[in-house]
Amino acid sequence: MSDDPTQNDTQNHASMTRGERIRAAARTLQTPRTASWIADETDASVKTAQKYLNQLVEDNVLRKIEQGDQTLYCVDQLMATYREVAALQREHDREALTTSLESMRTKIRDWKTTYDVETPGELRASIADLDNSEEIEERREVASEWEHLKERIPVVRAALNEYDWANERDALPA
Amino acid sequence: MYEGLKDVLQRHPATTTVAYKPDSIVRQFLQAEIDPSRVVPPTGPEPPTLDIEWRFVEEEPYYRIHYADSNTGFNCGWHRDHDHQDLGPVHFQYEHPVADERDHKPAEFEKTLPPEILWTALDRLFEKKIPTLADEG
Q: For residue A158, what is the enclosing H or E element?
């Protein structure tokens, strides 16, 4: 079977409106991009893209960066992280967050001992000395999970740090 | 990152539920359940699953868009990782245990943003890949 010739992609995104498509795409903008680049990526006009991007800036989902004569947009990482923290505080009790945090930390401690490395990068580097494909795959998967947990632990910790304070604010008025 | 991808999955006609795995605290990847009656060739009784994992390491994207049908063992998907560097940055892989077929091929996506790549992958998956590769015939 042939690989995937891009010209044959149907781009059948019928279940999403233009606005929804731009909003979904914009929420994953890791690198600052122009409205024109985002319009091209989402098959929209620049004017339409700008309209939705500016709405997302108003909503603190995106940041607008002026760079020379260019306007760039990217995810507002601080606000995105706060929303994640708030979601954890609202959806989970303190015990569940504590248990999960401990389990993530234990996993990392065990990997450090098992593979005799301090970081996922070191674990990836250790693959170069291996021949066994199963062992290589296992280390790649562990490194990948480790990288994810390293990013996730501070978010869960932040949710726990101000858990009671957040809970008070989240209480519905009597 | 995952909220935009979750939107795409929830809006796709073939998906019934979308959840974070291993749970909504750790959020390592998204898993959608697929309605077996929306798949060609038909499958069941268990709903096939679609895993979406997306990470950035120093702005370099790594992802896995992987479909698995536990009824037949057929599974396939697009991976952007270092597992098959001879095939380029992205490869498509499939495995059909019943027909004893498996393969890895280079693949590419014209788009860059994760939700756009996911849309394209879903179109290819349900319109081309599963109908062509999952048949036991």
A: helix A133-161
Q: Where are the beta strands (DSSP E) in A39-105?
A: 62-67, 70-75
Inter-chain CB proximity A23 and B7 less than 8 Å:
yes
pLDDT tens per residue, range B84-95:
778 899 999 999
Nearest to B79 by CA among B40, B45, B29, B43: B29
| pTM > 0.85 | yes
CB spacing of B55 vs A144 below 8 angstroms: yes
CB contact under 8 A, A100 and B110: no
Do the Cβ atoms of B108 and A6 come closer than 8 Å? yes
**A9, A21 in Cβ contact below 8 A?**
no
Which residue in the set A25, A144, A147 is minimally distant from B116, CB to CB?
Answer: A25
Nearest CA-CA distance, residue A42 and chain B, Å: 7
Distance from the A125 Cα atom to the nearest Cα atom in chain B, whole angstroms: 12
Alpha-carbon span A38 to A36, nearest angstrom = 5
Residue at token pair 């940055």: B89
What whole-number distance in Å separates Cα of residue A75 and Cα of residue A61?
6
